[in-house]
Design a protein that fits this description.
The strands form four sheets. A six-stranded antiparallel β-sheet has the order 8-7-6-11-10-9, sandwiched between helices. The chain has a six-stranded antiparallel β-sheet with strand order 14-13-12-17-16-15, with helices on both faces. It has 26 helices and 21 strands. α6 packs across α14. The protein is globular. It is of the alpha+beta class and 789 residues long. It is 43% helix and 19% strand. The chain folds into five domains: 5-133, Response regulator (Rossmann fold); 161-341, Orthogonal Bundle (Hypothetical protein af1432), CATH 1.10.3210.10; 371-497, Beta-Lactamase; 515-618, Beta-Lactamase (2-Layer Sandwich), CATH 3.30.450; 640-788, Alpha-Beta Plaits (2-Layer Sandwich), CATH 3.30.70. It comes from Agathobaculum butyriciproducens. Residues 667-789 form the GGDEF domain. Residues 5-121 form the Response regulatory domain. The modification 4-aspartylphosphate is found at residue 54.
Length: 789
């Protein structure tokens, strides 16, 4: 049995020895002489069961250690007993406010020290065990439900030749309709739990087709009246099958599934089957799934027809060509039509944002107790904050987003005065039609990552300009309310066309016309140098690196710019040359013999001398950079030790990394989950050493198959999460096959009998990332079921 480990942090060696003598040989011990050493030890080894912490120490005192524990959220997992001679009540209260579990005064009472340490360790051990058991049980139950539903629905799809995406599409449309319906009425009591139940249960809507002969299900031509009557029996059969599950019949999921199975072919006008229900006699769960099922049937290829276009399907449903539906649901379908077209399953996140904004707005309005003068001062502060921001902008277009109101005011300075102002409603689909779904997801994720302290961000987006596409730089600043500091109440920003020379200069802050601008240029280059590995000015027409002297004049340094790329001549596809010729900003991945880099080349002019600003970042293992480098900026500017986020067994990223940076990982095009087959059997037969070796070898095999910009995370136990910044369905299928072959090729010298394999499920283009993971998990267990069959 493993002994529990206690870290004693005290600058007095005598005190540390006394505590070890009192506690005896029952425990393992680690010692730190001050708070700084303690933090370092925790970063390197989190397998500490209890922290005994002194208050007064050099470098970082006990309060400093507690603040770091709270900053890293370790205090939630690691119990702390404070050791001190002080009896100051304020000191003791501060310790408890920072999350300590207990407080022991010196001089030590051996019995008290022993009992409190033992009680604390026992309490946390039991708590961890119970939490682990509950979490495992919840996770396993949920996983089992998804697996069973997935297998059953897959059987139905296989037998009647429907699209492999049929169930997922019906679930997606069902959820979107339900959420839109909650905006219109509360008569159906659609809570989050009920929406989740209906969406999950919708996967079983056609389970009754298992009993229908395949020659009828897959008949290419028209059905005879007799065959159609047989088809019409599947709702009753499906409901009867579920009702026969007497052990589970009272479960909410089964009850909803029975409703959907039996009545998803009923129609609003009473013309459906099997019971001819009319209007609201049909449960709302069956009404919504019926509409989702019809939409999917129209837009999918079937054995008896080709798919209709999106617009044709919507028109047919609204015109009543596919039966009668609840008019309110038809309104919902029409309103989500654009989202359906662009396959943007982010409505849930959008509704959370709107709900939080309304709540925040209500809170602000209810703060009547705030003195009027204070309110006025805050209004003035907001105005000053906006003015300061807009004065620092150089873009033609400025905008202001009022979150509670849901409106965006756009001021386009390049247009005539009477046409400069435009007001948009963000909840109207057409308002955002110029933005790609992936860009909308990036904007939301980036805004969500801001805080009152770090409230500015920049993005690069490709937007239409006439018949062309231009890169635009967007700079944004979030506005925060003191009444609800976890939510921003507004966003101000400016938009600059990066491929359009404005008034003879390029859109960049360090662009200057005179020597007086030189300090600004120097400051900007210094600021960027703290973020990027290489920041330099170049003249690509002369292959020269440039230097800026004290008078703001550019000079050649004598160094060739291509030398950095191990190239004696000019680069074959130099983006700096292209950026210079086109007066624009470009970026690309570039390689040397040993390294891969992300390069941004921006055309600028300094004292009327054109040149290119090059920003170069080396790509480390698992680090992803988007078009504006925000992923790179995250890792570098936070100053965090990335060792904290590595799994010590496999040396890939840990679950802590994912949870910490989840918001910033939004926008990944490809998401996959991987599970080791028969892993429990490996541990049971060969021991945990074999299991650990298997996980290490599998992680190495996967890393050999993926790009440096892809991210591999040990998600939990024998499960791995793979994130791909750029990925297509076709490329993923190839990558999946490559990984599975690499894993099957592993030969473990110490465990020759062990044969390794993995199941993988992945999805592309699904956002938010939590939804992508859910769907990848579902596909992974389908893959596992296929390998077993």
């Amino acid at each position: 049995m493993n002994r529990q480990k206690i870290l004693i942090v005290d600058d007095s060696e005598l005190n540390r020895e006394m505590l070890k003598a009192i506690l005896g040989e029952e425990y393992d011990y680690a010692e730190a002489e001050d708070g700084a050493q303690a933090i370092l030890m925790l970063q390197q080894d989190m397998n500490i069961d209890l922290l005994l912490l002194d208050i007064n120490m050099p470098k970082i005192d006990g309060f400093g250690v507690l603040e770091r524990l709270n900053q890293f959220r370790w205090i939630e997992e690691l119990p702390v007993i404070m050791i001190s001679a002080t009896e100051d009540r304020a000191v003791i209260e501060r310790c408890y406010s920072l999350g300590i579990t207990d407080y022991i005064r010196r001089p030590f009472d051996s019995f008290i020290v022993q009992r409190r340490v033992k009680n604390t360790l026992t309490l946390y051990a039991n708590q961890k065990r119970l939490m682990g058991m509950v979490s495992d049980q919840i996770y396993q139950n949920e996983k089992d439900s998804h697996v069973m539903i997935g297998i059953l629905s897959h059987i139905v799809e296989f037998r009647n030749s429907e699209s492999a995406q049929h169930v997922l599409q019906v679930q997606t449309v069902t959820e979107m309709l339900l959420r839109k319906l909650t905006e219109k009425t509360d008569v159906y009591g659609l809570t989050e739990d009920k929406i989740r139940l209906i969406t999950t249960a919708s996967a079983l809507h056609d389970i009754g087709k298992i009993s229908i002969p395949e020659n009828i299900l897959n008949k290419a031509g028209a059905l005879t009246p007799e065959e159609f009557n047989i088809i019409r029996t599947h709702p009753v059969i499906g409901a009867s099958m579920l009702e026969g599950l007497t052990q589970y019949r009272d479960e909410p999921l089964v009850k909803v599934a029975i409703e959907i199975c039996r009545w998803h072919h009923e129609r609003w006008d009473g013309g459906g089957y099997p019971d001819g229900l009319l209007g609201e006699q049909i449960p709302i769960s069956a009404q919504v799934v019926a509409l989702a099922d019809v939409f999917d049937a129209l837009t999918s290829d079937r054995c008896y027809k080709k798919a209709y276009s999106h617009d044709t399907a919507i028109t047919m449903i609204l015109n009543g060509e596919c039966g009668a539906f609840n008019p309110m649901l038809l309104d919902c379908l029409q309103e989500i039509s654009m989202r359906l077209r662009s396959a943007l399953p982010t409505l849930a996140a959008d509704q959370v944002l709107r709900r939080d904004a309304k709540r925040l707005s209500a809170e602000l309005l209810q703060k009547s107790a705030v003195p009027h003068s204070d309110r006025a001062q805050r209004e003035l502060n907001y105005v000053k904050e906006k003015l300061d921001f807009f004065v620092s902008c150089c873009g033609d277009m400025q905008f202001e987003y009022d979150v509670p109101a849901g409106t965006v005011i756009i001021a386009d300075r390049s247009r005539p005065r009477q046409q400069q102002c435009t007001i948009l409603d963000v909840h109207e689909t057409d308002s955002l039609r110029l933005l790609r779904p992936a860009d909308i997801a990036r904007l939301r994720a980036a805004l969500k990552a801001t805080t009152p302290e770090n409230n500015e961000l920049s993005l690069s987006l490709l937007l239409p300009v006439g018949r062309k596409q231009h890169w635009h730089n967007i700079r944004m600043h979030t506005l925060w309310s003191p009444f609800s500091p976890s939510h921003y109440v507004g966003v101000i920003g400016c938009l600059t066309d990066a491929q359009k020379v404005q008034g003879g200069y390029a859109p960049f802050r360090c662009t200057g016309k005179s020597a007086t601008d030189e300090p600004s240029i120097t400051n900007d280059i210094q600021r960027l140098s703290a973020i990027f590995d290489v920041v330099r000015l170049v003249d690509p027409t002369k292959y020269a690196v440039l230097d800026l002297d004290a008078d703001g004049i550019l000079h050649r340094t004598g160094e060739r710019c291509a030398a950095f790329w191990d190239n004696d001549a000019g680069c074959a596809n130099c983006i700096s040359a292209r950026a210079f010729a086109e007066h624009t900003t470009l970026n690309k991945l570039e390689f040397t013999r040993n390294e891969m880099y992300f390069v941004i080349s921006k055309y600028i002019t300094i004292n009327d001398t054109p040149c290119v600003l090059e920003l170069v970042s080396r790509l480390n293992e698992g680090r992803w950079i988007d078009a504006n480098g925000s992923r790179f900026l995250l890792d570098r500017t936070r100053g965090e030790d990335m060792q904290l986020f590595l799994d010590p067994l496999t040396n890939v990223y840990s679950r802590r990394y994912f949870e910490t940076y989840r918001t910033h990982l939004e926008g990944m095009e490809g998401v996959a989950l991987m599970d080791v087959n028969n892993f429990k059997l490996i541990n049971d037969r060969c021991g945990h050493a074999a299991g650990d070796a298997a996980l290490r070898d599998i992680a190495n095999a996967v890393r050999s198959c993926i790009r440096k910009t892809d991210i591999l995370i040990r998600y939990g136990g024998d499960e791995f999460l793979l994130l791909f910044p750029r990925m297509t369905e076709e490329a993923f299928l190839y990558k999946k096959k490559q990984i599975q072959q690499a894993v099957r090729g592993i030969r473990m010298s110490e465990f020759a009998d062990v044969q390794l394999s993995v199941s993988i499920g992945g999805i592309c283009g699904v956002h938010p990332i939590t939804e992508a993971i859910r769907k990848a998990d579902y596909l992974m267990y389908l893959d596992k079921a296929e390998q077993k069959s």
